[in-house]
Amino acid sequence: MRIVDLSMPLESHFRWSPEVTVKGDLDKGDQFRVTRISTTCHGFTHVDAQAHFVAGAPTIEATSLDRVVGACRVFDLSEVADDAPIGPDALEAADPGGAEGEILLLATRWATRRDYKTPEFWTQAPWLTREAAEWLWTRRPTAVAFDFPQDYPIRLLLKGESVPNAEHVTHDVLLRRGVTLIEYVVNTAELRSSRVLLSAAPLLIPNADGAPARAYAIEGLDV
Questions:
Q1: pTM reported for the whole predicted model
Q2: Residue 194: φ, ψ to 5°
Q3: What's the alpha-carbon Rg for the chain, to the nearest Å?
């Protein structure tokens, strides 16, 4: 068994500014050391609930863990070009095959090409076309995980630009239909297997539209 951590650390980042404070110093005689954090639910590695995109839809506590913990097949998309669309043909060629109801992990190894702490990670990444999102939907996954900013408009958000919902294709095609999105995983270059057990359990935050997750893959299991 081999465990691969796929999570971004919650630390200083130009997109998000988590506030991390520490109270108490054991070396000075305090009884406890206590850390406090304040951050967005949609930064770093996280899980989207339908309520993030669909009015009146379920919030994160309604996301069953069996949707984000389970058998996962890894799509090796490491050959995709920078700043280029990923279409259904690329997904078809990278699909190792499997049953409906699995988690699909799209692994471009993008973090080996750009540092996720820099704007270039977000503005020069590949992205999914609407046809690719529809192709993923036909596989009926419980969740889809991405190691790159999967919708083209994500780069536009950095400029303060907004576009119609339909252009956020993975949200519009997948999340709207109930497929959970696991966003901004990293370290996929460390994966050696095309089949893993993936865990991306979100924090249980009632009435939230998403939550941070500690995502990791377990290799060597019969899944």
A1: 0.96
A2: -85, -5
A3: 18
